[in-house]
Structure formats: structure tokens, C-alpha cells
């Protein structure tokens, strides 16, 4: 066995959380190494939110060009080139990958390319190298999950969707979470026929029910077929295409099948059992509020812990860990009232409690709702609706939930999330002058409510 290289901290996984932890720890004077089996930048930068948002931008031009006609613009010979979009997306991901490498280099972090595997609680094998560290941070994220069934080897996941050689004429997407919904919108807008197959009643489980219902309506208006209470029984080749048999005995033939039924913590093959690290049934590393595992000097942040699986949360967890362990400042990441977005078409922005959660947690609540057609669509004739919802705790007037479905929802909610996090009241919302004409002004002008509880 090779002689171990010694560091104060080894980070396994160079995604957003791991990179932030490594850089901050190095800034506090620690000797830090980080290892990565794929590309530096992690899920978000390489195969997640960044490339996905670029595809969402590309998809939106389909409606933008159509709407532009009502504003006096005319076009001829409009064409879409899938390969050009993918190539340009790849160039940007390469650029970001290079930036992350430079950030680590400039921070004095040693980057080792390869999959880390625990030998024991202090030593990790990375290819032919062995690294020994006083503290080890696991930040390996999650990976798409595909269940085992006849023909499961014929499907793609979101990872492969970013690199398809051509735009499918027809794609079947299995799942009802945010990844499934986002890719359904992307492929639909770019010209594919899309079936969204979901085994439950309503897409986007965990989000506010009103937003879920309204988004389903909007997706169906865009000719996305949503099949509820349905799942795949088997897939087989049918010439150049794929034949799907569903568990309700229906069949269809399609060009691609994409599974977006969830992601699992990427802990397989890490050798956590060699280090004595406890994991949950789904493979997630069990940690406390300081991201400490069952082994006192081994920590974990980000999706591998399956807490709040969002990139900005992983970054905060990584930063808090580094400050606490190497910076002399006891910090934890706050997982309460975390805003989130779904880049569906139309998009969702949300922060705080859903109506169902609020009713259970607070008892009596006031619910304010508004639905309207955005000003932009009054000329284009598009019937897409914007939907907004405020949830207020009746006992203290605090706004405890804010939900938006519609154009620019994520940008709107990002600002209002500060107000919700700060515990502002509905009266303070009402006292704020709206910017006119905007969609966001609706959130400070709602007056009619339903008292529930």
C-alpha cells in the first residue's frame, strides 16, 4: 500500500458544497485535499441546474417568437438546431468546470481526480494514492435512480438527456417531481411530443396543492399528456423505437423513455462501512445539525445527507462546517423557510409552508389567492395564467407561506423570501407600495382571504 499523504481535511466530492467547504477551510489555514471521480463542479454545474436552466432558456424562445408577432415582429425561416444548443451548452459547462478548478487552485487546495474509498476512519484510497486526514467531509451528492424492471437498461435519465444526439420526436417521461416536470416543458417547447407518466394523483408532491393543480392545467394546455396512476411494466425494442407496456395494460411506441423518479445519495462504493459511518435505508449519511456523522471526525453535506437537497443549501452547509471546524466559529446551516423554484413552463417559486402544512402546524390561517393573465399575454392572446398565494398565521399576522406560478416566478419569490424569512406580517406587506405594472405587485395588494382552521 502506498504511503499516505497527510492533510488536515480531505473532501470527497467536488460539487458545490464540497468545493465551498474546501476553499473556506483552506482560507482558515488548513491543509486541504479534494477528490472527484467525474468533473469538478458537481451535479448542479455539470449535469443539473445550470445546463437545465440553459435548456429552459432555449425552450422559451419557441413561445417568445410566437408572442412577438403581436408586438409587431415578423420572422421568416425560423429553425431550431438541437445540436447547436447542446454544443453551446457544453462550452459553457466546460468554462464553469475550468473556473471551479481555478478556484480550488487559487485557494491552495490539492485536487485529486478519482473516486475516494475509505480504507478506515482516517484513510481514503483514491486510485493509486492513499490520503490520510484528520477530518474527512463527504459531499458526493446524489445520482438518478432507475428501478429494476424488464427493459430498464433501455431508458435514459436526466444525466443522458443533456447529451442526446438528436431531439426525440416523442419522449415518455416517468415521474412527477421537479426534474420530470422541467424536462417535460423543455422537450415540449422544442418540438417533441411529450407524455408525462406519474403513479400518483397530482404532480409535484410536496408543493402547495393549488400550484400543483394549476401547473397541471397549464402543462395540459401546452399539449403535454399527463397519465396519472400509471407506471411502466416493461420496455422492449420495436425496430428503432421503444415499445412501452404500462401496468394498466396500455401500450405506446416512442423514441425515448426518460426516468425521473428521484435521486439517491451517491454512497455506494465509498466504503463507509470500513469507517464505521452510519447510513439510512436509502444510503444517506446520517448527520447532526453540525453535519457530523456517527464518526466524530467524519462529516457530510449536501444531497448525500438527504436533508434539503438544493445547491445553495449544500453551499451553506459546507461553509458552516469549515467555519466551525477550522475557523473557530460555531455555525450551523439554517434549513427553515428555504425558498425553491421549479423551472417548469410556466415556472414556480415558493417559500415557506404550503396550505396543508400550515393548517397542521398553526391551526387557524388566512389564505389569500389571486389568478390573472399577465400583461404581456393580453396582446399575444396567450391564455396562460399567473397564480399567487399568500398564507398568513392568523394569530400573529405573519406571512408563513408565499407561492407563485407564472412568468418570472423564481425572480419574484427570491426577493419576497427575504420578507418571509424575516417574519414580516401581512400588514407590512400591505404597507409596501407595489411597482406598477408588474406581476409582483399583486403580492402586496391582496385583500380578500379565506379563514381556515
Written overview of the protein:
- With 453 residues, this protein is α/β, with parallel strands linked by helices.
- The chain folds into three domains: 203 residues, FAD/NAD(P)-binding domain (3-Layer(bba) Sandwich); 110 residues, 3-Layer(bba) Sandwich (FAD/NAD(P)-binding domain), CATH 3.50.50; 107 residues, FAD/NAD-linked reductase, C-terminal dimerisation domain (Enolase-like, domain 1).
- 32% of the residues lie in helices and 25% in strands.
- The chain is built from 13 helices and 22 strands.
- The strands form five sheets. Strands 1, 2, 3, 4, 5, 6 and 16 form a seven-stranded mixed sheet that branches. Strands 17-18-21-20-19-22 form a six-stranded antiparallel sheet, sandwiched between helices.
- Helix 3 packs across helix 6.
- The longest helix is centred in the N-terminal third of the chain and has 25 residues.
- The protein is globular.
- The model has no long low-confidence stretch (mean pLDDT 97).
